[in-house]
Amino acid sequence: MNRFATEIFIAFGCVIGAVLLAVALNSESQMVALSAICLLVVALYLALFRIFMRRSLIAALLILAPIDVSKALIAPLVTTFYAAGPYFSPGLYISLAHLALLALLIFWLGRRIIVERKLPPLTALDCLAFTYLCFIWIRSISSEQGILAVGSAISYSLAVLAFYVASHSIEDIKDIRVVIFTSALVLAAMFFHVALQTVSQQPWPLPGSKAGAAGAIVDFGGNASAFRPSGFFIHPNVLAHYIVIILPPAFALAMLGPLRLPEKIWWSAVIASMAAGLMLLVTLSRGGWASAIVGCGAVMFFYVRCGLISRRKLGFIIAAVAIGTVILLLVYPNIILRLTAPDNRSLESRVLLTDMALTIIKNNPFLGVGFGGFNRAGFEYAAPLYANISPEYQLGVRQLVVHNHFLLIASELGVPAMLFFVYFLWRLIKQAFPISQWKDPAIFAIAIGLMAAVLAQALFFNSDNYYVDIRIFMFWLAAGFLQALRLHAYRSIASID
To answer: At CB < 8 A and 24+ separation, what contacts does 249-253 make?
Structure first.
């Protein structure tokens, strides 16, 4: 067994160990708990005496990141630590990916400090990320949500930690190959799970998952409805978010063409793009569709501007997309229904929540109402549009959170924090430039794809409920991989010089 296969094998071993640990935490059996402890001892031994454990942990993190299985330490609503009453904050959930992240952090940072005798790295982008995290912590400690706000801040800290660890633990081309190969395996597993859900019209949740019926069925009015698969997640929109991260890099590789890439890589990218596109379609996520179009469109725009795609070829691509769209609409008419049929007042509730967010921002423009405090503030303020709906519907809407991440930030942390986050997104996008830094065509395409994915996420942020959950974790993890590619490019240029 070669070294690469061994690293992936150990990664899957770590995943199995994490699953067993999750079972142990929910089990009354001492034997199961003892087995989990023995497994952790073996993992520590491997971490101390196996150099390639770092890559295995990187692979384990990527395998577990899109698996929505978690344990509540500080649950929303009412907790044993603080009577939060009816007001919602995300709280603190520990997932299997968090365990892999902490293991990778300990191994990578411990080895860097103790063995290599180097200080932890810190880039300008790291400083921006940690500064934004400071906004969150300052406004969580002073939040009326108490321990729930602090738990939510810890959850967000784990997401930013994923950004930092991914940025610096992925060091060389072999690490990048592990990331690409592992991501492809996870995408394949996700595709088969989504296919099973779609064919059987059943959610098929993972063991230990909190997946339910929320969002699984969309009602078009009358007797028309459609099933929406959610993959390894608890909601179809979360699956759409995952695909919007994965699709642009795969699409960028596919559009680079077989002449610039090895044939196996190019075909793999084409298949991955098609699989991701099909999954995105059946999620029936309108925000996901729009975001994916923006992400893939950004890739095409950049390739045309750089001369990588001729205008003639672009015309053929546009014609092929138009023909494919017509065929899809004929074969899968749910697309038209999703865009034109009634949506159970989903759009109306988004407008009402936006009105509430603007009201909160107007009254708290600089510091917001505190991290995790939007739902509480929703009961305290009277938004103008709420006067036009019934008290019963008002109560239902007040229990929700605005489906716009930028407005949510401005409501809880203040407009300056929101502008700072927008600036951070801009700095992320700039990581892909200048193009002269990319010497390897495949890495160049992935970097452009991740840049486009960040741009697509910026649009998706405007249409869905991005609080402190697995979507935020995956976003920051992908952003960390983009910075890792940039740092690798710097090191490659420095070695040549």
So the answer is: 249/445, 249/446, 249/449, 249/450, 249/453, 250/187, 250/276, 250/449, 251/295, 251/296, 251/299, 251/449, 252/299, 252/303, 252/445, 252/446, 252/448, 252/449, 252/452, 253/442, 253/445, 253/446, 253/449
